[in-house]
């Protein structure tokens, strides 16, 4: 019997358009002989719209916006066993695949909602999603587990405005130039700047604060950008590594999603010793945030063979340019099979949780 999969995409986030690209790729990869695909679009204002089950692939990105082809719903209607509805279109779903990036999707918020309505969902839980979204919390957890990483400082907007000079001196004394300024709770290289002097640093911090109340500044590392994909629950496994070779100063939003102006080398050129080190660190990072389902772990590999973990992404993109599915493809797991595996992992985790005793 077919599984009814709800694909939730869009979202009230600066990464709304990235999510649409991910959704388009996933929809067109799913085997419609195995799955009934139910599109659920979250508008930029936060309104939820559910469309009819898809009967064929989707060709145009704008078709996913469901402006006239869906009905506005309450998110709780995703589980009609708990919240009955008379609408035939609102039948219960077997599993939800959140294809959301950034705040209000990748940060534990929708995961908390899905926990409350007691429905299986693909990917990381509330804690891992929240920790993986907040780069400061994530790096603090990595430090706690002894994972090697670049030096960093961070501050919230109100503190920065009260003590601007002190904050700038902290960056210069602890990190120096070049350095990278990032919103703490955003991904897809949105709001990230590389700085070579104080003037650029001040401008970059102001840009980052447009996207978040918390900013992190990291030291510039000279090294190759290496990524590895992880899937699993209690016993995660890793793909081959991939290498990002941007033709620009760094791997920015445009290079990732628009012009493809980046060389993606898969498998990346690493020694067996380097691979085993990166794999071990990736699994350790996965467990440090209590991950489940999937993460993409990003590293810097220095000339002397030292690996520094940069971050984990708990909901990596599935666009045609995305590293996560490409690395698994080169490992022997094709895109469609990868999605099926992630759905299986979601069901597995859900069934485990149903065995937990909630009364005393």
TrEMBL record:
It comes from Bacillus weihaiensis. Its cofactor is Mn(2+); Mg(2+). Pathway: Glycan biosynthesis; Cell wall biogenesis; peptidoglycan biosynthesis. Its EC number is 6.3.2.4. This is D-alanine--D-alanine ligase. It comes from the Bacteria. The keyword Cell wall biogenesis/degradation applies. The active site is at residues 15, 188, 322. GO terms for cellular component: cytosol. The gene is ddl. One of its GO terms (biological process) is cell wall organization. The lineage of its organism: Bacteria, Bacillati, Bacillota, Bacilli, Bacillales. Keywords: ATP-binding, Cell shape, Cell wall biogenesis/degradation, Cytoplasm, Ligase, Magnesium, Manganese, Metal-binding, Nucleotide-binding, Peptidoglycan synthesis.
């Amino acid at each position: 019997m077919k599984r009814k999969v709800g694909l939730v995409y869009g979202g009230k986030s600066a990464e709304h358009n990235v999510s649409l690209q991910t959704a388009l790729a996933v929809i067109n990869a799913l085997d419609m002989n195995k799955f009934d695909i139910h599109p659920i679009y979250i508008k930029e204002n936060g309104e939820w719209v559910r469309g009819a089950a898809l009967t064929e692939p989707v060709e145009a990105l704008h078709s996913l916006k469901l402006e006239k082809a869906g009905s506005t719903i309450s998110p709780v209607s995703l589980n009609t066993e708990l919240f009955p509805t008379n609408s035939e279109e609102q039948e219960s779903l077997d599993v939800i695949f959140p294809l959301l990036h950034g705040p209000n999707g990748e940060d534990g918020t929708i995961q908390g909602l899905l926990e409350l309505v007691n429905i299986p969902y693909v990917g990381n839980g509330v804690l891992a999603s929240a920790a993986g979204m907040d780069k400061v919390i994530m790096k603090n957890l990595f430090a706690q587990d002894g994972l090697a990483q670049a030096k960093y400082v961070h501050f919230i907007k109100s503190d920065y405005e009260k003590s601007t000079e002190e904050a700038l001196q902290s960056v210069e004394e602890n990190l120096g130039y070049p350095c990278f300024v990032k919103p703490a709770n955003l991904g897809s290289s949105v709001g990230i700047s590389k700085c070579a002097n104080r003037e650029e640093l001040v401008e970059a911090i102001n840009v980052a604060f447009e996207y978040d109340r918390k900013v992190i500044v990291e030291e510039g590392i000279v090294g190759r950008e290496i990524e590895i994909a992880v899937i699993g629950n209690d016993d995660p496994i890793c793909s081959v590594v991939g290498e990002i070779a941007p033709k620009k100063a760094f791997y920015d939003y445009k290079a990732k999603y628009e012009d493809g102006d980046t060389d993606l080398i898969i498998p990346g050129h690493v020694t067996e010793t380097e691979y085993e080190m990166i794999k071990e660190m990736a699994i350790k990072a996965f467990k440090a945030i209590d991950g489940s389902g999937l993460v993409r772990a990003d590293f810097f590999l220095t000339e002397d063979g030292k690996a520094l973990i940069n971050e984990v992404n708990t909901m990596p993109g599935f666009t045609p340019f995305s590293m996560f599915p490409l690395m698994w493809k080169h490992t022997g797991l094709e895109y469609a099979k990868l999605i099926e595996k992630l759905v299986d992992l979601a069901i597995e985790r859900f069934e485990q949780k149903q065995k937990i005793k909630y009364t005393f």
